[in-house]
Every structure is written in C-alpha cells, then in structure tokens.
Queue: 3 jobs
Job 1
Amino acid sequence: MCSANFHSYSPSNLPLWCFFLESFKVHLKGLWKSECRCGPEISSVKDLSITAEWNMESSLCPCTEPGNSLSAPLASWEEYYRWRSLPLHSPAAVLLHWPLTLYHCLQLSRIQASRCDANDTLRIHYLGPEKELLQLPVFAELLALFPGVHLCIELVGPTVPRSRDGEVLNISSYAHCSAESCCCRSFAASEDVNCSALTLKLWKGVYHERYSDMDSNPHLIVAPNAGLAAYPTWLPTIEDRDSSNVYGLL
C-alpha cells in the first residue's frame, strides 16, 4: 500500500502505478494527486478547484488552443494525439479520458453540437463522479473539441463534498503546463476569438433525488463506470429516466 508520505519511499518499492506516475514526475502533483491511493480522499478536500496544473512540459499536455480545428470527428486516441501534437508516450490520456469519453458519447448519440450557438447550451448530466472531482480543469479540453459551443455539465453523486453542493464553476482556459514562460499562463479566453464556454455545477446526492434541482431536459446523461448491475441504488434512476428525452445512460 502506498504511504501518504511519498518522499520516504524510493522508486524501487513504489507500487507499479505510482512508479509510472513518478517516471513523469507527476506523482502526487497537481491534477494527478488522486491518481493513486497515496492521494487525498475526495471527502477531505475542501476546494475541488485546488489546481489547474499538468505539472508536465508543454510538449506532453494540451495547455493551449489547438493549432487547427477538427476537420472530421476523432475516432481514436492516436488521432487525438496527432491533432493535439502530443507524442504517443504522453500520459495525458490518463486524465483526458473524462472529457474524451463525453466527446465520444456525443458522437455516438449523434447530437449536433455544432449547431449550438451562443444562445443555446449543450446540457449534460454526469452521474457518480469520484476522483474526477479533483481533476475538473481537464474538462476544459471540451472547449477545444466543441469550439463555439456553450456546455453545461452538472455532476451529481454522493462523493461531492457537502460544502460544495450547488457550487458553480466556470472554466474558460486550459490547465497549465510546467513552463513559467508558456503562453498558457497568460491566456485569457476571449469571446471574440472563441465563444466556447464551460460551466460545471456540483450536486451532492443520488440522481433521482436531486434531478429536480438540476437543469431539466439534458441532451445526454452519462454515468461512467457506474456498475449498474452491481448497485441496486441505480434502479430508481434508471426507471425515472427511462421515458425521458435523453440520448444515453452509460
């Protein structure tokens, strides 16, 4: 088992995953803090937006706008990495699988996000978040994937700290790389350049009990790694949303 005091360990006796993170110098740093058991418990963290740091050089992470817009939907990580000019050995996908999963779900559901404009909002209900609550800045990658679209993602689950219940977070820039001189640190989103906007709302509790507090009629409902067959507490949610106008519950 990992110790919370990482510095007392040498790489030779770190668990394999911790050793992998340490090989990129990101173990227990920035957005990576919750990627192993050495990190803090979500319930003990008072500020879910504690960091927006990749703690990697700019060549390994998407910290700025892409060099060009997508000409076709992405079909693989290889295509994404090529588009974002990232080397295949970059570990960024470990964290980016949250926003990229949403992107893939929207592609599968054939929701025409490209038709949304500044007067419309693409609404997503995100069920059962856990460690991604400590990695919220990575969802900024949706700004690059859906340029010109206003996205509102409402995250609901028992692990949302009670002190953060009902909180609204607005994200307008990407997580920073480790270079102090990189333009990502001085970047300020401009509506004239990119009218994308990302709003995150946090709700504590189970979905079928908090749905009335959330924006109605979401375009998509996503429950990543939900274990629907393993947890009977999902049944009221499934029954409640079965006849609703949504595109998917995963």
Job 2
Amino acid sequence: MHITQLNRECLLHLFSFLDKDSRKNLARTCPQLQDVFEDPALWPLLHFRSLTELKKDNFLLSPALRSLSICWHSSRVQVCSIEDWLKSALQRNICSRHESLVNDFLLQVCDRCPNLASVTLSGCGHVTDDCLARLLRCCPRLRALHLENCARVTNRTLTAVAAHGRALQTLHVDFCRNVSAAGLRRLRAACPRLTLRAEHSAAMIPDQLPRGPHAPGAALRKLLLC
C-alpha cells in the first residue's frame, strides 16, 4: 500500500510522530500530503528551541493551537538581558538581529490562535509588557503563562494579568528582574485563586536609568553583566 492510500485520520496520526522539518519535507512530496500538513488538527502544540525557528515555514498557526513554548537557551540570552544603555556597539548589533522576532511572532499568535491555553517563554529577553498584555486580551482561554528570564517583563504584565487574565490559573515569572515584590503582592490580592510563582524575581537587581559613566558602581555593574 502506498502512503497516499491511507485515509485522512491515519495520515494525521502518521504526521503527528514527525518533527516540524520532517512534516514539511514529507508534505513537499505530493499535494495530498501538503493538504494534510496544512490541516489545523495537526498543530495543537508548537515548541521552538531557538528564535531562528520562528522564521521558518514548517508549521501552521491556527485556532487549533492550544500550547506554545519558545525556550531559547543560548549564550546570546545573556547579551539580551543586559540593560540597553549598558550594551556595547557589538552587543547592540547582536540584539538587533533578533530583538523583534518573538514580539512579531506573538502578534501573529494573537491574530490567529484565540483558543490558546498555555504559553511558555524562556530566555526571551526582548518580549515586552505590551505584547503580553495583547496576548492576554486576544486569548481569553489562556490558563497557564510561564515566563522565565524575560528581562523586559515588569509589573505592567502583572497588571495586565489582573485585568485580562480571567481564565488564567497559573502564572510563573521566574528570574524576571523587573518584577517587584510590591507588584506580586498586588496581583495576589487582586487574584487570590491564581497559582503564582516568582523564583528570584523580586530579589534580583532591577534595571536602573543611566546616571553617567562615572556614577558609583556603573563600571562594576557593566563588568558583571558582560
């Protein structure tokens, strides 16, 4: 029996065992398999291990998406986490190549995936409060939001959770240095049923406005961050 003689249900089951690249390669072999590749039922879960994967065309965003994770574990994450005003020209150049990728991708998710239930973002140093607030508004069924080492996430995201995260049951904001203890207390008071975890976030040194190159501790802080 040829693979194209299998029924739709069997083909979807077969595709489900393949990674994104393998699915795309198989879909290129004939129009029938391309049609299976484009079936939203094949894409309830998406996991990305690097930001470059977000630019590929080997996946589908649709209302069928329920779980999304972007986990970037790279040495460049450390560069992204440095405060903008402390970055060298080289570090700014490195960040410029990818700083809008996650935000742009999440905006597409907002437009196409209203039934999203779970989102995990790790090492996404450029994801913004505004982007996460829009995600909460556009995905009213979101039940779990896990944020780890997202340097630009602040108390504004916590405020957006209180305002728009009506279905949210679990929120993790681990190693997010610009989330404060006061912000966490306000969120706990506003959403007492929310399971909230914030490992080390409130204990980390938050971003500070530049005070000039000769400010006390400025040189040491830049050295430690680099």
Job 3
Amino acid sequence: MLPLPGCLLTMFSDELEPQTEDSSLHGGRIRSFKHERGNWATYVYLPYQPEEEFTELLQELLSTAGACGVVLTPQEEFHISLSQTVVLRHHWIHPFTQSLKSGLVHCKRFMCSTGKLRVYSNAEKTRTFLGIEVYTGHAQLMDLVGVVDRTMEEFHLETFYKEPSFHVSLAWCVGDMTVEMKECIQELQRLVDEHEEGPFVLTLDCMELRCRTGNKTFSFQLNS
C-alpha cells in the first residue's frame, strides 16, 4: 500500500475551524467527532426502500415500545451499513469513490433477508437503536465489506468491525436505553413473528451500493 503523498496530507491544514456542537439542532444527538471545514463525514451502505407493510409494522413497534416507556424516533432512511462513519478530506472524495468503483467491478447483485430484532448502541452510548438483523446474504455482505475496507486502508481510515452484525436500523432514542429496550424486545419480536399473514421478513434486493460523504451521495450498481 502506497503512503498518501505529503502534499495531500498537508493541503488546507490552515482552514480547520472547529464549530460549536449544538445537540438541540438535531434531536439531541451528539456527533462522534467535531465538524471541521474541509472534513466530510463519510459512510458506505446498501439502501432499503420501505414498503407499505414495513411502514405499518414500524408504527406498531414504535407504539408498543412507547407503551413500555421507550420513546423511539423512526429512522429518516433505512440501510445496511458496510462501513463505520469516517472523516474524509474534501480533496480525497474523487480518488476515494474511484477506488470503491474499481473494487466493486466484480461484485454481483444478491438478495438478503432480515427478521430478528436486536438492540444496538453507538460506541459513546449516546444513542440506542432498534434494528432488525440480517440472516441470509451474510457472505455476500462480507465480500462487500472487504472491498470497502481495502479502500479505507488505502486512505488510512478505520475499517469495519471484524465480526459485524449486519442490520437495518429501524428507530432510535437519545441516551443509553439498552436495558429498557431489551426488557420489551420479546414483545416487539412477537409483532414481527405474528404479523398479519405470518412472520414479517424484510428482504433487500442488493443491487446498488452507495457512499454518502457530506451532502453528496455516490451510487455504484452491482452486476446482475
């Protein structure tokens, strides 16, 4: 692996301006790192477009969790993460996305399914999530993580978890509510297992990988 050129490492070093973090501006959430000009929060994921049945089930889950004393906010969008959130310099965006594109050239489209609810929290314990875990397609997801990790290593960025629990985050709340959510997880799982015409299975047609960096989103189609 070639080291990054020194000119890239020092470019714009004088433009960093830490900005005050105001958690009231985004629902009480706290960033894992300070925003600095020229630094772009970046992550890689597989998108999921919710269907009506999913939306109805999610509302039932939120209502039941609320009755248990856990007030959850639904995610604004749904996806399976393939990377941690890393900080990417603006002038690295093009070479970073080109590296991803090259690595994905032989990756094929596949299906994966989820069905078991699980409680997650971020490393800082400032947010707790209700997610639904993947049970088919794990091998293909690990192949994609391998591609993403190689690009991360190329830019000296943090790679993904060694033994990831692939999932779609459904909803979240501020603070460490892990214990409270686990106390009602069986009742929530029952809603999934006994949904209208049998157990609800969230199925993703994984045909497109996306990279979100700041306010830009790059899309990479997987081979049919």
